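Handover notes (outgoing to incoming on-call)

Open items:
1. Penicillin-binding protein 1A: sequence verified, structure written out, both below. Nothing else pending on this one.
2. Nothing else urgent.
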Amino acid sequence: MPRFRRWLRWLLALFVAFSLVGAIALGSLYYVVSSKLPDVQALRNVELQEPMYVYDNEGKLMAVFGETRRYPVQMKDVPERLKQAFLATEDARFYQHDGIDYKGIARAVWLIARTGSKDGVPGGSTITQQVARQFFLSSEVSYTRKFAEILLARKIESELSKDEIFELYLNKSFFGNRAYGIGAAAEYYYGKKLAELDLDEMASLAGIPKFPSSGNPLSNPERARQRRDNYVLQRMADLGYVTQAEADAAKAVAMHASPHEPPVQVYAPYVAELVRQEMIAKYGGDVLNKGYHVTTTINGQLQDAANTAVRDGLITYDHRHGWHGVEQHFDISADADNTALARHIAGIPAQSGLQPAVVSATHADGSITVVLADRSELVLPVAASRWTNRSPAKLVTRGDMIRVRAGSKEGEWLIDQIPRGQSALVSVDAESGALRALVGGFSFAGNKFNRATQARRQPGSSFKPFIYAAAFDKGFNPASIVLDAPVVFRDRRGKTWQPQNDGGGFRGPMRLREALVQSRNLVSVRLLDSMGVDYARKYISEFGFQEAELPPNLSMSLGTASLTPLSVARGYAVFANGGSRVDTWIIDEIKDRDGNVIFKENPAMACRGCGGTSSAGAAPVSQVVDGFNFGAEAAPAPVAAKPAEAKPETIEAPKPVNPNARTAPRAIDERTAYQLVSMMRDVVQRGTGTAAKVLGREDVGGKTGSTNDHRDAWFSGFGGPLATTVWVGRDDFRSLGYREYGGKAALPIWIDYMRVALKDAPIAKNDPPSGMVQATLNGATEWVKTEDLDRVQDFDFGQQDHATDDAAFDIF
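Penicillin-binding protein 1A structure tokens:
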């Protein structure tokens, strides 16, 4: 007995010692772990990753950018049964425990031991523990991390309400397919808001977080169905959240999840990419995950019109040059079914409505059968390829990949092809510079290169209005006579440059108004020759061009500068708004995730009557231009002028009411802008742009442009409040084809767009500004600057063979 008591005392002493050591160890662990626990108050102000949304100027969705899909929800917007589905699945005693459910842990351990599987077993971690793990801890499996999770859960429970914790859980949980949070999951899998979900859908969503990648309704619908039926719905019934009959009815519903992206209401991928790049430049690379809402200046209706005009215009152009063959050919076996055929084109995107298709059979009557990417089958009749003047069966063979598009009639499908040409369209509000529509190519899916902002092409004759404007600032006017006759420039090494008019021929002395209307090249060359290249470059740079991008030689008069369509449209806006240089811009407003405005654009606006002339000097320049020595200026010839009554001085414009209003700087004299607008309206009424008369508006004006070998076709112009530029060309700089001038390839696109853009828009006036008089000069009545009456000149260029140090060759 004494020995037994001694052993008992020793055991008790060891127990006490081990207890003390254990207590000390636990205390130390608690101290070490708890001291490193984060401040859970941060959960009250947590910023969940949300995508960036881009809208047009009326709030229609254009694009969504971001690594995650997430639409945070508030608990008051979560249906009761959806809450119950998650409680039944993850933590039925959530509203009873204090962050740790010891009964739940014991039950989970027992079920795992009995079944040998975790599938269908309620989680041992409470919702609070999962929130602690999601926001603060790693996925490391260790006792220390688990202990930290328990301590954090208790801490979270002491500082946040149950609903706050539940809301964090619902918004943070991963549901597969880049969907984070219940709001994004409901939208992606079912295309519904939370209040619209049916019981079976709620149960399916509640079953996803345990196996988000391998058990969601898209990746593994059978596994998702089993978890929905056998666990989520049945447990809801067992807990009394739903009746057994309701659970059975929900189980009977077939799995029907499918991918749902946010409905894009305005298709403008080139614009959206511009916005994405600008937002990253402004706020950094993480901007796409901060939930910003970006409103642009783009008008959805005008953008749709631009998309259609570019697509139809390029298809029409391409059809003029015939069928250029199938895109590619696949070797397919004789017994290949539709699934096998469709597999060949599974990764090939549609482009502007042109869908890829594989020819599965040709028929004796000339028709063919094709298979689309979704494995559906179409029979294309002989009429499907009428534009090629051949039947479909003569164009293709089995295994060929072609493009098909829906026709104008119900159920009609047509054979088509990706155009070899490309196009860009830019339309800006001339008064503010706001971009209203922009298209960078035939298809963003086919090529993301934005030709509207990145392609530098020669504008050809559409550049001539800038040359004329510079000349008008040097004393010329629309009635000035300039010779349209041969001219040769020769350098001192004997090399010569002899510019030509398009199509050849010369028309002798002619007024500048007629020279622009008829787009006479030699008149433009003589104008630049007379005023000097240096002066013209400085003057034209006031339109917003970089002086360095303007050729330092006489070739500039023929439009050999390499310019983007966006910069040309901006230049034409100067004419349309009365001479102000406005900056083009696209982001109007930015709101954060809470709806607070963090940026609002305040553009500098054009102002008629504000300021006088541009800063592009009025002083004469040397007659030595880029090495060409033209000698002294010829003496002015007498001019018969009949001054008309001067237009009354306009009343000074009232000061803007908005104290933050900004006025755009003046680029050119308002009177010069008036004269060029008048002349470019004549280009439409009786010149190279007469096709635009179909619009039936007197305020429409512009200028065609074509370059050597028809590599580029342009039409830039204005009407109503808009200045719009259209370019057509090929990315490889090859010719567009015989007689593909600006008036044929580009102007129809411009017309189709402006027909929609100008509908119901008021006619833009072009009243002569103050400082002008109406006079009869050289047999024509024109509005001219008052001071020009004293220095109107008719230049006699005399000898047309000039010596020079350097000459411009390779002129386009």
